[in-house]
Amino acid sequence: MYQLIITEKPSTCLKIANALADSKVTQKKTKKIAYYELQHKGKKIVVVCAVGHLYNLAEKDKKKWHYPIFEIAWKESHTINKSAAFTKDYLDLIKKLAKNADSFVVATDFDVEGEVIGLNVIRFACNKKDANRMKFSTLTKDELVTAYENRSKHLEWGQAYAGETRHYLDFFYGVNLSRALTLAIKHATSGFKIMSSGRVQGPALKILADREKEIRKFKPESFWEIELIAKELSAFHKKGKFKKKQEAEAILKKTKNKPAIIDTIKKTKAQQSPPNPFDLTSLQIEAHKTLGITPKRTLQIAQALYLDSLISYPRTSSNQLPPSLNYKKILQNIGKQSKYKQLAQKLLKKDLRPNNGKKIDAAHPAIYPTGEIPQRLAGQEFKIYDLIVKRTLATFAEPAIRETIKMEIDCNKEIFIAKGIKTIKPGWHEFYEPYVKLKEEELPDLEEKQELNVKQIKLHEKETQPPKRYTQASIIKELEKRNLGTKATRTAIVDALYERDYVEEKSMKVTELGLKTVDTLKKYSPEVLDENLTRHFEEEMEKIRSGKKKEESVIKEAQKVLTKILKQFKKHEEKIGKALSKANKETRRKASLIGACPICKKGDLRILKGKYGTFIACSEYPECKTTFSLPSFGLIKSAEKNCDQCNFPKVLIIKKRKKPQELCINPDCPSKAIDKKLLKEKRKCPKCGTQLVIKKSAYGSFFACPNYPKCKHIEPIKNNNKKK
Question: 3-class DSSP state for residue 480?
Fold first, then answer.
């Protein structure tokens, strides 16, 4: 008999085994899946991995595609989804090991998702009602040993019930609303388009759509500013914006060739507090702002850093580092790395008090580096790690002191203002470089009553600007502000909006389909977009977590609300379906448009899909039979500009984690010209010996074997005739 510890990820499984072992850890394998046996203080322990959700919710009877669906149950993931087939071997191993275990410990991530994973494994795979629970925020040896020695006797039931309720509600809303939208198009037009919505996705799309409508309705208004340009500095009129040009011109006339004298100089010093430690949302926002890394990628990197024991658990909503963490030890550990040694030593000489924020998380502190020395970090991984380390150091540092200087300049009784700001004591800035993004605008040393050497007084005509679209980072921040979704789910919601063609581009521009979906739901089923309803259930689940509410009552309330929504939706199904189908066609039409046909000058070039792949063709077919081949991989969209050498439209080839590649669609473009020597060259295929032929594609020319598809050998031809 032995104690069975259930972890969430393979790397965590090994780390826990190594941390608890008195001596050697024995690795064993079943169907290539590793698990570990060890002795801890005379007791035999087996550590096994659950690789995430081994169980997921599914319909009890999936014979008919309909709604509403409320009869659901937990089922083994591999029986629901083919992509989860690999989980069967992990589940079988846990079932086998559970038979000979006399006690159980759950060591999955300490959050609602981790609790649900552990709960399902214990009750379904191990056939037990409860288990011990390890709670940890880092994967360092010391913390894992402490977490094991101080493990609780029971699962974190409030967290487990709250997590399970979230799964039920997300399934009810996600499946029922998505199915209703998809079937509305099918029943109304016989067309098919996978649509989706959910508890948070609907309100999130409405927030984006409302901003898009503001931008579309926006009408720029002209205004004027008056600038005084002197040899020493430049200043703008005190009034700022002038809506009437005549008024600005009158001041311009009044001040022309008049002396400008500094009337007053005011200097104000202000302390700038250090930043708060990172929670997940603030890390994602800062990484996007300073490094240009998307929130999704930031989370992926942070999770990898956590699994390598380099940082604490990243899925936290706390921006506080509690005293129980031992600040001195954290900084001493950071100081072991030469890059941070001097900065850490400076902080260790003072009283250590982090500038904590106001957000708390019952499960985890703010994100901080453990002090473990990274072995191989490069690129974005190093940048995120460095950002977290510097942020942690900065939060312990002294405030910075910034000085603001305001000069009022009198020019024939018209007052102009010059402002400057500079850092006179860097404080925490020194510890947070190069991520301090503050302007330094210094003014020259001048005195009151000093006359300036005026060069000119200039009138600037400008226009008001529309509101900015949300970025992936700013919409996540907005969702957090409105208490919609969780720190772990908001990134997935943003992804879903892109996947369903509701939004496009980095600036999160809402498509016609996205706008029409919001307008249609607002007219016929506004509850789907109601963020107050979504927020209400978020609060209800928090009450479950704290033991103030029962799981069953919240699930029944959600079913009642959703039944009412779907009943109303069904009444208007045909109208909803027709509106969404029309919007979908318009979105697809715009997305496929490449540009005007350079051959017939009448039609438009569009991306089409055929039997042999994707290609570009003219809309005037069959009168115009112009076509262009396209690469068979990557997302292809218009670059919205023409080639500067042949004036044919250009496209963007977008591949995951790579910079988009811009290509001219014209295979005979001068930029793709082949060296004349290569045209005469006879080259044989190294695989089958056949003489290679030269072919052209959107990427340029290449040698290819004529025996394709039996022989798929190709050789790219380097272009030597590109225009410099």
Answer: helix
Looking only at the bridges linking them, the beta strands covering 101-107 and 2-7 are parallel
Contact assessment for residue 121 and residue 105, using Cβ atoms and an 8 Å cutoff: no
Q: Which residues contact 314 (CB under 8 A, 6 or more apart)?
A: 280, 283, 299, 302, 303, 305, 306, 367
Alpha-carbon distance of 23 to 494, in angstroms, equals: 47
Give the H or E element holding residue 405: strand 400-411
Among residues 148, 151, 127, 147, the alpha carbon closest in space to that of 137 is found at 147
Please tell me the predicted confidence (pLDDT) of residue 720. Answer: 46
What is the CATH code of the structural domain delimited by 222-273+401-463? 2.70.20.10
Q: Which residues are catalytic?
A: 313
Per DSSP (E only), the strands in 531-680 are 593-596, 604-610, 613-618, 627-629, 635-642, 649-654, 661-664
Which CATH class, in words, describes the domain spanning 165-216+472-583? mainly alpha
Q: Do the domains 222-273+401-463 and 2-155 match in fold?
A: no
Largest CA distance in the chain: 97
The pLDDT, as a whole number, for residue 653 is 80
Q: Compute the distance between CA of residue 467 and CA of residue 208 in angstroms, rounded to an integer.
A: 12
Task: Give the pairing type, strands 234-237 and 101-107.
Answer: unpaired
The amino acid occupying position 377 is L
- Give the phi and the psi of residue 670 in degrees, each rounded to 5: -55, -30
Query: Which tokens hold the place of 403?
Result: 């000085």
Q: Which residues contact 505 (CB under 8 A, 6 or more apart)?
A: none
pLDDT attached to residue 722: 44
Q: Where are the domains of the chain?
A: 2-155, 165-216+472-583, 222-273+401-463, 280-396, 597-666, 676-716
Give the pLDDT confidence score for residue 20 in this predicted structure: 96
Between CA 581 and CA 477 the distance in angstroms is 32
| Residue 304 CB partners (closer than 8 Å, separation 6+) | 381
The CATH architecture of the domain made up of 280-396 is Orthogonal Bundle (1.10)
Q: Return the amino acid letter for 187.
A: H
SS3 138: coil
Q: Which helix (H) or strand (E) covers residue 76, if one does?
A: strand 72-76
User: In this structure, what DSSP letter does residue 451 have?
Assistant: B
DSSP 508-526: TEEPHHHHHHHHHHHHH-G
Is the pLDDT score of 571 beyond 90? yes
What's residue 675's pLDDT? 56
Least confident of 67-81, 435-449, 528-542, 606-620: 606-620
User: Do residues 701 and 674 touch, judged by C-beta distance below 8 A?
Assistant: yes
DSSP classification of residue 541? H
Domain at 2-155: CATH architecture: 3-Layer(aba) Sandwich (3.40)
How far is it, in rounded angstroms, from Cα 687 to Cα 713? 7
What is the C-alpha separation between 97 and 126, in angstroms, rounded?
A: 9
Distances in whole angstroms, Cα of residue 549 to Cα of each of 112, 118, 165, 204, 343: 16, 22, 11, 27, 48
Residue in 288, 333, 340, 284 with CA at minimum distance from that of residue 311? 333
Helices 551-571 and 157-189 pack at an angle, to 10 degrees, of: 10
CATH match for 676-716 among 1.10.287, 2.60.120, 2.20.25, 1.20.120: 2.20.25
**pLDDT tens readout for residues 272-330:** 999 999 999 999 999 999 999 999 999 999 999 999 999 999 999 999 999 989 999 99
Angstrom CA distances, 61 to 73, 199, 592, 652, stand at 10, 23, 39, 44
Token readout for 325 is 């963490």
